[in-house]
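Input structure tokens:
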């Protein structure tokens, strides 16, 4: 039997591997500590695993599932929303232009600015300690953080590029593409493969990712669950 691909259930792979220190576990269910992320996964569709997920939602709050198939009905749990997305990978990158701005590493001291920028631009779920899941870089003008990108889920052999955003006043200058290329190049340099997720309807972002060298791996469903 062929082993499942780590990206088929990337949250489960990450929470059972390199990101296990960030996991809260109830039976056959795992979720990121809410300070770090909203994603969750179950070992299987057994009643015991689904009950564990329901317990996590009741105790810790809403979760999101990011998998190819819709979840089974879970007693005590309601679906908030379900959106079609794409999962893309970049075993190699396309050549890119030289940039005329500095890309700087972001540290714990930048955390308030990172949260403010993500609150303004809404690139996806970003919480108080999301920036601690991996390395982040950014672009600053006169000390103000105006663009950033970094790493999120880390299944074995893969690292997700995430948190990509640019202040509305500074868009159209190539910051997002350059930051993504920088992050993805470092991931490749570690012998891993960069991957990412995007809503299927976000065709503009997908076009940028394709220009960088990312290709479609599969469609996924972003399902948000809450306590019924």
């Amino acid at each position: 039997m062929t082993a499942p691909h780590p990206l088929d259930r990337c949250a489960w792979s990450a929470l059972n591997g390199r990101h296990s220190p960030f996991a809260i576990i109830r039976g056959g269910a795992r979720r990121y500590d809410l300070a770090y992320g909203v994603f969750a996964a179950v070992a299987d569709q057994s009643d015991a695993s689904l009950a564990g997920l329901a317990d996590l939602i009741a105790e810790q709050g809403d979760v999101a599932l990011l998998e190819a198939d819709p979840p089974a009905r879970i007693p005590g749990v309601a679906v908030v929303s379900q959106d079609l997305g794409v999962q893309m990978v970049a075993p190699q990158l396309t050549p890119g232009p030289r940039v005329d701005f500095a890309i700087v590493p972001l540290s714990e001291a930048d955390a308030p600015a990172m949260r403010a920028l993500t609150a303004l631009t809404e690139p996806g779920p970003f919480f108080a300690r999301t920036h601690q899941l991996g390395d982040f870089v950014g672009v600053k003008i006169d000390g103000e953080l105006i663009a950033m990108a970094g790493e999120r889920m880390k299944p074995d052999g893969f690292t997700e590029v995430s948190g990509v955003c640019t202040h509305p006043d500074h868009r159209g200058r190539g910051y997002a593409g350059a930051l993504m290329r920088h992050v993805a190049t470092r991931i490749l340099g570690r012998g891993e493969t960069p991957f990412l997720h995007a809503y299927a309807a976000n065709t503009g972002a997908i076009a940028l990712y394709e220009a960088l060298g990312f290709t479609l791996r599969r469609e996924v469903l972003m399902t948000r669950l809450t306590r019924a």
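The mean pLDDT is 96. The chain is about 25% helix and 30% strand.
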